[in-house]
């Protein structure tokens, strides 16, 4: 697959790069590193993100201009990174189908291979880790700009080496990125230590809804539109909350319900060990990884909770 990608890059000039909506550190780091990789090869790259870059990743070096609408034009190839399905890049994704060569590079086990070229490694800690291997294969010498993006992709997807997807490869690559000038304390400071106060006011409200089920093995909490309004918070302030719930002793599955419509909730599930939450979210049309997955469920808070608990029993 890497040989095919090399050929496509060699023969093309104008490339498109994107990732999933609500981007996380792996998504942003992957996209930006690919931007610098293509630029270093003398190619043009258009970066499309449906959403704004989340505040905690604003420090990452990327293109001066990020497109928030998919242009109605044909590219030599489109890189869709860290994204389980094409529709997840956001509305207007149909425009992209004019581009014949879509290259999907990903590590989500729910990815069914929507690209013409698919590099899927579910054993990789992050998409950033796969991209590192691609850049080495392409013979690109990594700049600091690429290194800090790859480093951030890996550390955010492994929860700073706390999750089970942390492997020796992830650590080795990060060591190499450090030698290229990446400062772990600086990255961690920007990602984990630079939150607006409102995030914590919202966190307090969410904690007050915390309940456990199944002898304390399942933790559930929710956030409503009203709580967002009361605390002057935006959606991205809840990033990482489901992971916090997973820190409770004895909890194997942590579930955060976030209201996104009058009668609709976005569900984030995090698990420890062998519990496969991608399977549970799959029942509702969502997906993700074994230990981190999401989906949408319609209903009021009680109905949604009941649906989840019933699905978990299955
Ligand atoms: Mn990822």
* Biggest sheet, spatial arrangement of strands: 6-7-8-9-11-10
- The first-level CATH class of the largest domain is given as Alpha Beta
Mean pLDDT: 95
Termini separation comes to 38 Å
**Would you count the extended β strands for me?**
11
- CATH fold description of the largest domain: inorganic pyrophosphatase (n-terminal core)
The CATH architecture term of the largest domain is Alpha-Beta Complex
Q: What count of domains describes the coordinates?
A: 2
What is the strand and helix layout of this fold?
Layout: H1 2-11, E1 14-18, H2 25-40, E2 44-48, E3 77-81, E4 102-106, E5 117-120, H3 127-137, H4 144-157, H5 168-179, H6 184-192, H7 197-207, E6 211-213, E7 218-223, H8 225-230, H9 241-245, E8 253-261, E9 264-271, H10 277-283, E10 287-288, E11 292-298, H11 301-313
Parallel strand pairs: 1-2, 1-3, 3-4, 4-5, 7-8
Antiparallel strand pairs: 6-7, 8-9, 9-11, 10-11
Bound molecules: manganese (II) ion.
């Amino acid at each position: 697959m890497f040989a095919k990608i090399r050929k496509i890059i060699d023969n093309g000039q104008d490339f498109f790069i994107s990732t999933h909506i609500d981007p996380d550190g792996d998504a942003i780091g992957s996209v930006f590193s690919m931007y610098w990789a293509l630029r270093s090869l003398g190619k043009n790259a258009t970066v499309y993100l449906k959403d704004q870059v989340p505040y905690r990743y604003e420090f990452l070096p990327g293109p001066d201009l990020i497109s928030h609408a998919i242009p109605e034009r044909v590219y030599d190839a489109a890189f869709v990174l860290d994204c389980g399905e094409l529709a997840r890049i956001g509305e207007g994704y149909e425009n992209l189908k004019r581009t014949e060569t879509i290259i999907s590079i990903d590590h989500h086990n729910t990815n069914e291979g929507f690209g013409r070229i698919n590099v899927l490694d579910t054993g990789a800690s992050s998409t950033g880790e796969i991209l590192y291997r691609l850049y080495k294969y392409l013979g690109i010498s990594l700049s600091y700009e690429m290194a800090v993006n790859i480093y951030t992709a890996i550390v955010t997807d492994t929860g700073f080496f706390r999750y089970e997807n942390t492997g020796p490869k992830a650590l080795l690559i990060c060591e190499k990125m450090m030698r290229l000038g990446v400062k772990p304390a600086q990255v961690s400071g920007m990602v984990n230590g630079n939150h607006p106060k409102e995030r914590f006011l919202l966190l307090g409200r969410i904690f007050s809804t915390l309940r456990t089920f199944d002898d304390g093995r399942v933790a559930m909490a929710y956030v409503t539109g009203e709580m967002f309004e009361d605390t002057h918070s935006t959606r991205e302030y809840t990033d990482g909350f489901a992971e916090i719930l997973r820190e409770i002793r004895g909890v194997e599955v942590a579930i955060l319900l976030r209201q996104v419509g009058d009668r609709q909730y976005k569900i984030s599930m995090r698990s420890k060990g062998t519990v496969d939450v991608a399977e549970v979210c799959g029942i509702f049309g969502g997906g993700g990884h074994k230990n981190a997955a999401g989906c949408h469920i319609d209903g009021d808070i009680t109905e949604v909770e009941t649906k989840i608990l019933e699905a978990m029993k299955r």
